Amino acid sequence: VGDLPGGPYAYLLGQYLGDGTIYGTGRNARARTLRISSDAIYPGIIRECSVVIGQLRGKRPTLRVHTDRRMVDIVSSWTAWPCLIPQHGPGRKHSRTIELARWQRAIVGAYPGPFLRGLIHSDGWRGVNRVHVKGRTYEYPRYQFSNRSDDIRQLFTYACDLVGVAWRPWGRYHISVARRDAVLPLDQFVGPKR
Length: 194
Known about the structure:
The chain is an alpha+beta fold. Helix content is 40%, strand content 29%. It is built from 7 helices and 8 strands.
């Protein structure tokens, strides 16, 4: 863990918590496969995630395009994945406890921007919010993060607090970042999904 590049790891952890899974492969009980699923309309995110996995693993992942061409799986087999991402386990993430190990919390504390970027690239968006007040329409940029796991939403808000980004709950599973002084710092780390 000492040689782990913190920023790339924090980004991949965010991606895993949103759209990732680790599963066993075939007859070799030691081999594990990390799969990050991404919408095919975001080639920049697919490329960034592939580069980060290559930095951590030392080997570029395989891309598997779904038959409907709407999704791409970024796939990498390595025995170390369960050690690097101890949050893996049976069942859906929102039905089990998700906690960071002490060493992971230290990395996220040192690299909250890449962690937020990974979370938003997987389960968030940046768009324009339009509101009508007293016959006038106002538009402003905003971020939204959505995840059914209370624990993962709390990790998102923890990282927002680390970088001074004001947030508020929006509905049952969503976190909204809409204040101008909060959107600007996120734009430095994230920006529009590409």
